[in-house]
# Entry
Amino acid sequence: MYAQILYQIGMFMIKRLRLTIFAVVLFTWGIGQAQDPQFSQFYANPLYLNPALAGFTECGRVNLNYRNQWPSLSNAYITYSASYDQNLPGINSGFGILAMSDRQGDGALVRNSIAGFYSYHLKVSEPIVISFGIEGKYYQEVLDWNKLIFADQIDPTTGNISSSTNETPPSQDNISVLDFAAGAVLAYVDQWFVGVAVHHLTEPNISFYDNSDSKLPMKFTLHGGVNVNLSQGGLGNNHHDDWVLEPQLLYMQQEGFKQLNAGLYLTRMPLVLGVWFRHNFSNPDAFVGLIGLHFNNIRFGYSYDATVSNIGGSAGGAHEITFAWNFCIYKQEKRRKIRAIKSPSF
# Structure
């Protein structure tokens, strides 16, 4: 008898856990305003962070990113992205393209987008460079109504889930809009930099119901860092065998949601170690640990988010894997007109 009781309790908890996943999806989709997916390895996805970082490399660059957030909750949030950007030194410009897919609630809500980027790099003086960037994006949301579970479908005694609900299905399950962003980065050679970006400038409506308005809120990002050469002392002027410390700050705000990220990167080629703390103001969120490797023009990175918020470690934290390849598709000029901004690799 006790085994049967324990079995029933276990099944009920599993179904409640599954319900929690979909409750998160429903909050994002219906009650609350939509928020963007985020990455812990910010600079391993530079176009997503700030349009002004497009093309600020020696040549071309490919970035691949994978993030699995809260894996213990049955694929709660899984995000993929792939990007390519290219430097055009002859016209002090850069361009790029970024494709992304974000799956929530085991595919109950899927967000897909493809974006194009252009940046212009202005040399203010010998040590100071400013980059201005813009982004145009095609954005799509797809809802699978049959994967959603509502409170009236759950038997409060047994935890069994019925197939019928009194909730009204939306008038459409597929939304497509155009979206725009802009940003700027100021750098002092390879010593320090600061950037600002504004996403969702037109705040497009992404409601699945015809008679309601669910805007994609504007997102503000402020980020910056310092490059400290521990081997030689002072800032910048790094060599391959130097120990380099990079303190970094990143602040994001979208609607009422605010987040501050503070961290450090410690580099001695080919190894990069990083640690971050992410704070959402209402409550601490997570500690992030990173290990990255450089092999010539190829980079691999792995990071883990150790959750300290109210959702707890039972959610499984977050795993993130990145890959990057820098390469030249044409013969580079002997000397670039403008140096690349020295930002972290991950």
Notes: The chain has two helices and 15 strands.
